[in-house]
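SDR family oxidoreductase
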Amino acid sequence: MKFDNSISAVITGGASGLGRASAYALASAGVKVAIFDLNEDWGNKVASDTGGSFHKVNIMDEASVEEGFAAARAANGQERILVHCAQVSKGGRTISKDKENGGWKRFSTEDYAFSAQGILVASYRMASLSALGMASLDPLEDGERGCITLTASVAAQDAQIGQIAYGSCKAGVNGLVLPLARDLMDLGIRCNSIMPGIFATPPMLAVKDKAPAIWDGLNASVPFPKRLGKPEEFGSLILELNRNTYFNGQNIRLDGAIRMPPR
């Protein structure tokens, strides 16, 4: 896909972290961006910086997402690019000690279902609704109408203790990619996922301030380069996945060769 101001993108979680880096990268390449997020202050700031638009969207709510797409398309035109970074989940071991009674407790089915909704179901929701809009577009070179990038995690392949919901649901995100790519192939819509390792996003930067020894250990755990990933490096890969039409049906690790230990 060639970038210019006729191309529009929707980025979920675009107010911060990997989503914000994606928005800046795409906007710097001439793409019109729409930011979907719940944080209005940060989202409006990114929209202002990129010349794009901000839309308060809850990825857990179908009506909110549909309204967000309608508003973004009214502002920038039908998107050819979707970058889905937003997620909601809960953590905990399958079975853990119950500090209240000294016995054992289970990670509840309700908490697991909540995480599945916030990661896996939300990924399908965003991808399918975006693809429905992309189907109306005239094809570009190679018959391409659009490109969807979902955000998985290295936890999809090496989830740690306490990541039963997060790891399995991120694996599910990877599992969406090939059937989506095949379902959408006759429409010329591609789908890939990125599995980021440990990135210097706001939650991780908070660790740097509060627990510098843990921060140093995280950096040292990456084989090379020995540092956390830069959000800009995620944004760079977003550009390449959209530019290079032959990327399709792929789950790509972006992690400095890290393989996560059990804990």
